Amino acid sequence: MEIKEKTVQQYTFISKNQDPVHVWIDEWTTQEAGETIFKGRIVVVCYGVALNHFWGSMGRPMKEFILECDTGYILDKFESNVRNSMCPRAYDVAIDKEDNITRTESDAIVEMSESQKEYIKRIIEVIKQGFQEISTKVGENG
Question: How high does pLDDT run on average in the chain?
Answer without folding.
Answer: 85
